Request: fold
Amino acid sequence: MNENQSADSQPAEDLPGPESGAGPGSHAAARPVPGRPGSARHGLVMVLVALVAYLLDQLTKWWVVSTMDEGQVTEVLPPVVSWRFIRNPGAAFSIGTDYTWVFTIIMVIVSVAIVLQVRRVASWPWAIALGLVLGGALGNLTDRLLREPSFGQGHVVDFIALPNFAIFNLADSAVVCGVVLIVILTLRGIDPDGSRTGGDEPAADSGDGTDHERRDDRDG
Reply:
């Protein structure tokens, strides 16, 4: 038996196929499908980020209410940062103080909308961003529902004071950071499922197609 005959007689199962990971098309089988394999892990990260933001917000508000009198000012890093305890009937940064019920409804809608996205998120930055917005919204919503003067119209506890700026809390900070991150991701064309806008491939795989095009040009 010569060498050519031995190569031809090799069992079919020993030959490299599409499943074995060999060949130019093997990357397609290994490529992650957006929103499927990692969605549970991404959703868990989103929930954990929201929980951390919520707990930090509520613990700091509890500390302020327990240790400070309303209107009291405590210098922290003068003249940059100080604690100033106020109760805010409006939205973030004391906006719209005469529309407490409206902001309560808006926060409920935002919170529900984000929760419905938990199982669809397959991007780490999006998971963090939505978690921050959700945790901050729930933090201030808790104040609206449970604090004085009444259910749904409770005043939010604010205490972080900066020079020539509105007084805010950690929930406000979480929402702003989350929204900024969402804007950056949107401008970069990254969707919550991890894919690029206008394409089906995940952002991390954006370079594969270029490499194979170059190979095809050389072969041709």
Summary: Residues 191 and 197 are 6 Å apart (CA to CA). Confidence is low (pLDDT under 50) at residues 17-23, 25-38, 204-215.
